[in-house]
Specification:
8 strands, two-stranded antiparallel ribbon, globular, six-stranded antiparallel beta sheet, 26% helix, alpha+beta, 4 helices
Length: 160
């Protein structure tokens, strides 16, 4: 029974480590432009709010390719074009698609049933869920502001 306190301490340290990891999965970011926050990762999904250019937000993760990211700010939770999101990297603000892989920003998925239930069930748009369940959002065009070249030396982006 001498191992019981040691086992308890190890379990506690593991739990603390996991909770620290979960907290580290989100990143502080900024809206690069006046930004529509949408109820899904596509411009066709209804907007749930607007954040002004320069607003601070939390980036919870992005879809593969960083085209759309799950964000929250000012009581709003939703999806925004990764092309319009910035975060601090070293000494400057950078755009998510260019630098997210370097910091291992989490890749997340979107399941409309779960997402809308978790964040929108109190909003009027929740009654429209059946309309959106079978929508193939991933087949549509690129998000606003997207470009093919996110190289470091790219200057003159319209939102800088």
């Amino acid at each position: 029974m001498k191992n019981t306190p040691l086992f308890s301490l190890a379990a506690l340290l593991i739990m603390v480590g996991l909770s620290d990891g979960a907290a580290a999965a989100s990143f502080e970011g900024y809206a690069g432009v006046n930004l529509n926050v949408r109820s899904g990762p596509n411009v066709r999904f209804p907007a749930v709010g607007v954040l002004g250019a320069g607003s601070t937000l939390t980036i919870h993760g992005c879809l593969t390719g960083y085209r759309w990211c799950d964000v929250s700010a000012s009581g709003i939770r939703g999806w925004a074009s990764g092309a319009h999101l910035q975060f601090n990297y070293e000494t400057r603000r950078v755009y998510v698609p260019a630098y997210a892989p370097r910091i291992e920003m989490p890749i997340v998925t979107f399941h409309i049933d779960t997402y809308w239930h978790d964040y929108y069930r109190e909003l009027p748009l929740y009654s429209d869920l059946p309309r959106w369940v079978d929508y193939h959002w991933e087949d549509d065009t690129l998000p606003p502001g997207w470009r093919d070249n996110w190289d470091d030396d790219y200057f003159g982006h319209e939102y800088e």
